[in-house]
Amino acid sequence: MIDLYYWTTPNGHKITLFLEETGLDYTIKPINIGAGEQFAPDFLAIAPNNRIPAIVDHAPAFGRGPVSVFESGAILMYLAEKTGQLLPADPHRRLAATEWLFWQMGGFGPMLGQNHHFSQFAPEKVPYAIERYQKETERLYGVLNRRLALHEFLADEFSIADIACYPWAVPHQKQHIDLADYPHVQRWFDAIAARPATARAYALAEKVNPAR
After folding, report:
1. Strand partners, 103
2. What is the DSSP letter of 195?
3. Closest CA to 161 of 67, 114, 93, 211
């Protein structure tokens, strides 16, 4: 059994997508970040950076438990290695999956997050910041589009790299991105959206946070 400390953000969706794809047994522990629950001492003991998601695995593969893991990329790597799923066995594809996972963690998440903040939530409009992060968002979608022009998925086969990137592309309209301008991203996006596990993961988000 895995306890998933979760809220309905792109980083949170990564883990529900993985868990629904693999069928692992898990329980949602909602952490309402709007209400400040991420600062509770019990949660900080699991996630010292006071960010969701985090997990506690009560049956780790290496026989000692429970084990807690924070940071969404680390959780995806941990669960992929635990299950032997969604991380390619072929060394070249495995390396590609790792590269694109790190690409998402270092750029496609943080830069798009800044886009969201300055264009929608900042208390005052800062034109320089809005323009800066919009241009970087467009650049990153271009990087993704070029990769997907040559590969069905980021590591050829569907993997944790795709699971990491997809939730950040879901709010593309709020990022002022038209996927028609990135046709290979559009094809990839539609393929992942059509997966049954994706539908289940996002239906779960509606139950946890109907007001999202």
Report:
1. none
2. S
3. 93
The Cα–Cα gap between 128 and 162 comes to 31
Residue 106's contacts (CB-CB under 8 Å, 6 or more residues apart) are none
Mean pLDDT on 54-81: 93
Q: Which residues contact 73 (CB under 8 A, 6 or more apart)?
A: 101, 102, 104, 105, 164
**Mean pLDDT on 91-95:** 98
Q: Domains (ranges, CATH) in the chain?
A: 2-86+197-208 (3.40.30.10), 91-195 (1.20.1050.10)
As a whole number of angstroms, the distance between CA 120 and CA 26 comes to 33
What pLDDT score was predicted for residue 62? 80
Mean pLDDT of 18-45: 96
pLDDT value at residue 64: 76
**First-to-final CA distance of the chain:** 27
pTM for the model stands at: 0.95
Burial track 14-26 (b if 16+ CB lie within 10 A, e otherwise): bbbbbbbbbebeb
